[in-house]
Amino acid sequence: MRDYDDDWTEDQRALYDECYALGESWAADPDTPAEELQDVLNLAELDEDELGEIDLTYAPLVDAVAEATGEQVTSVTADRDDPAFRGFVDGARDGAEETVFGL
């Protein structure tokens, strides 16, 4: 389910939506390795204190944000206030099959 912040601008909502769609598509792709999908699902379940706003270089996430923004991206901050990060992990969680461990 899409999860916007009330104070996000239209541009932030659009970035979230694009990253959400990319995450959802990636999770539903049968060629996506189960271990990678589980890593993203684990990120989706962490609370803010556990995320610690670390910079992630996880390729599927970085590629999705680069595609959505049209900018070269080498890392993405693990921050639920970031519409790109939240969109991708929310989309991956919603795109994963119910049989995936952790759901």
Which percent bin holds the helix content? 55-70%
> Topology as H/E string?
HHHEHEH
Alpha-beta classification: mainly alpha
Major pleated sheet: 2 strands, antiparallel
Rg, rounded, reads 13 Å
Considering the chains and any ligands shown, give keywords for the structure.
single chain; 103 residues; two-stranded antiparallel sheet
How would you characterize this protein structure?
The protein has five helices and two strands, in the order αααβαβα. The protein has helices at 10-28, 34-45, 48-51, 59-69, 83-95, and strands spanning 55-56, 76-77. It has a two-stranded antiparallel ribbon. α1 packs parallel to α5 (83-95) and α4 packs across α5. The protein is globular. The relative contact order is 0.26.
Please summarize what this structure is:
Strands 1-2 form a two-stranded antiparallel ribbon.
Layout: helices, strands, pairs:
Layout (H helix, E strand, L loop, with lengths): L9 H19 L5 H12 L2 H4 L3 E2 L2 H11 L6 E2 L5 H13 L8
Helix pairs in contact: 1-4, 1-5, 2-5, 4-5
